[in-house]
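anyone seen this seq b4? input:
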Amino acid sequence: MTPSDVAASIKELIGFHRRFHAVFPRRELRYWSLFYLCGQLANLKRKTIEPMVLALQGADRKTIRAMQRFISRDRWDTQTLLIQLQALIAEWFGAPDGVVIVDGSGFPKQGTDSVGVAPQYCGHLGKVANCQEGVFLVYASSRGYAFLDTRLYLPECWFSAEYRTRWRACGIPKHVAFHTEPELALEMIGALARRAVIPFKWVTADETYGKSPIFLDGIATLGKWCLVEVPADTRVWLRTPPVEPPGCNVLGRPRTKPRVRRTAPPPQELRDLVNQLPSSDWQRHRIKEGSKGPLIAEFAFLRVTTVLEQLPDSRVWAVFRRTLGLQPEVKFYLSNAPAYCPTTELVRISGLRWPIETTLEEGKDEVGMDHYEIRSWHGWHHHMAHTFFAHLFLMRLRLRFKNSPALTTAQARQIVARALEDDIELLQDILAVVNYHQQRNHAAYCSHRKRTISRSRCGRLRTLKREVS
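predicted toks r here
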């Protein structure tokens, strides 16, 4: 990369922001949006409003108050911003086999005044803690990945009478009703499907969503295919059992509900099924090319019938993914993809959880996704939408610099930050560092890839020897 490339990034930033002027109806709103965007891209340890203003404009209390008002109270529509972002994502990254990935993320908080805060499981900390929880959608294709949408999860306790004062203080709209995280995710995916701007065939999610029948049935109703991780104790039938309609019993009252015929075998847990699979059912697949070489695992596939309220439900794929090594770990998935779906496609989708983990990590590390001191409902959604805005610009910059294909999101942000500071000497230094890290990362990748392939071959030989013996 050259200094002229970096100078072009500032023009790219201004042009990118200009695309969204319609979202901010007044001139001062457009100004504060661009200011906030620059603050999120700047080299700041803490990307809250006060450090942004101090770094970019100096000690100015009026600017700090104006910025606080812009995020917390000014009336600009986050949904309009997200819809325009989605249109650009479709243009830049859209592909017919695109995947929408669902995940939740927690934001630890002190005190009880922030909207939606409550003791709940926080994935960021790996334990129950006082936090806010958001549900996020990310789009991924072979062309790139980006945030699509989000909802703040309000715990059930927030709908009790004792929370009414906090409800009003946080400015939560009166029409907001309680929804579980899978219901919030399904609501967002349904909106995407109805607008039909983002091309996608697949939806993937973790256990939180895989154990929700409402979520799985809702994805099927939308005409989309899903591959979701499910708990090991999920019960299924290998063959669909016969069902007896309501009717008379030999003894007792007549039955008012259908039931599985008593002679039918009971459903089995997936962890029991996996132990019954012969070694010939396991196939080794390369899932994807990772930063440390190919990711390889063993897979087995079955067609099974799911259980819903003690009755047979849908005929689906059960996918078993087993890591290599002396102590293999098994993950379980269900997919509503049709029987003719190639198993290689199921393998590919099983490896597409990483974009949402990467996107959330980049959002928090690079553009201050979790660096907010906002308590209101509108403020939370404003900040998250603007975070998606900043992250998408960095993804755009990576596309813009195709002559440097190994450019990471972190490196793209560092370059923009130096260009905003307009320091030519520092700019030369950061370019030298970026080029050095790209060469070093490539050398490490080649080394890891060689080692991974060698281990895979050795593992395959050991498996063959066991089967022969």
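The chain has three domains: 3-206+356-419, 229-243+256-351, 423-468. The radius of gyration is 25 Å. kinda curious what u guys think
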